[in-house]
Amino acid sequence: MSYRMLIFLHRKEGRSHAEFRDHYENVHVPLTKELTGSLFPMLHSRRYIERSPDDGKAMVLAGAKGEDEADAVVEVAFKDEAAAQAFFAATNSGEAMERLKKDNEQFLNWEKVRILKISEVRRRYCSLKEAVLISHRLETILEDTLMSKYVSTSIEHNVTPRNN
């Protein structure tokens, strides 16, 4: 089973949500990948909190509205705990640590960052037999679609399909 975490990120004061998102996607993530290489998480999903166009506050649909909502929730997954520890060791030493710290200062309020260990529940909503039947049906549809495109393309180009 993989080792997973949720990371709650908050933008630096004075940065807009759009600037935060742009920096995270186009500067921070590529930099982290460059510095950690194969140690980078096998999953790195980002979800950005929607903001009201009127006042820039988080669009809370239910529950108490807080002034201090995160700007992004990031899920990372590693093969195991040892892989996670190797990644964090790489980001917290030498040149990588210096470059990431300098980058974080550009867009991130590090004092508000929260990292939580999470677990995952996977539940099958159909039987294995049903899943196999669905898979075979999708395969048939794909084959039919590809064959019809091949035949129509062959006819357009005056090519006769071979029978194998």
UniProtKB/TrEMBL annotation:
Domain EthD: 12-108
UniProt GO MF annotations: oxidoreductase activity
Signal sequence bounds: none
Pfam family, one: EthD
Gene3D superfamilies: 3.30.70.100
Classification via InterPro entries: Dimeric_a/b-barrel, EthD_dom
Highest taxon of the lineage: Eukaryota
Family indicated by similarity: Belongs to the tpcK family.
Record protein name field: EthD domain-containing protein
Highest classification ranks of the organism: Eukaryota, Fungi, Dikarya, Ascomycota, Pezizomycotina
